[in-house]
Amino acid sequence: MTEEIQMNLKTEMDKYKQVERDYHKALSQRQQLDGQLNENIAVKKELDLLKSQDDVFKLIGPVLIKQDLEEAKQNVSKRMEYISSELKRVEELIASLDKKQDMHQETLEKYQQMFQQAQIKASLNQPKA
């Protein structure tokens, strides 16, 4: 009985650890996306300060290529939309993983209680020498 509970406890612990790894990975992803969004917001602010006759250059590899101001603004806006949608997706993933973590934690606590109770029963049932 205790061996079965112990095995279930270990399996549940492995599941919990996997969810925890996924959670930390998603947090890291969110942090990266936040940084990218802030970077693009700064670029958009700078582009908004320019006049239509000003030159804008885009870095492609080691080369600067001249780009139309409106095209640059559109590219930055599209990038911000994409990053925002990715941020929303990652936020939903984090919320889902958070719920899974809570669920696994509750299950772990139940198995730990069952294991402790089984150990107490086993020690009470042992013949005294």
From TrEMBL:
One of its GO terms (biological process) is protein folding. The keyword Coiled coil applies. GO terms for cellular component: cytoplasm; prefoldin complex. GO terms for molecular function: protein-folding chaperone binding; unfolded protein binding. Pfam families: Prefoldin_2. Residues 66-114 form a coiled coil. Keywords: Chaperone, Coiled coil. The keyword Coiled coil applies. PANTHER family: PREFOLDIN SUBUNIT 6 (PTHR21431:SF0). Belongs to the prefoldin subunit beta family. Heterohexamer of two PFD-alpha type and four PFD-beta type subunits. This is Probable prefoldin subunit 6. It comes from Dufourea novaeangliae (Sweat bee). The lineage of its organism: Eukaryota, Metazoa, Ecdysozoa, Arthropoda, Hexapoda.
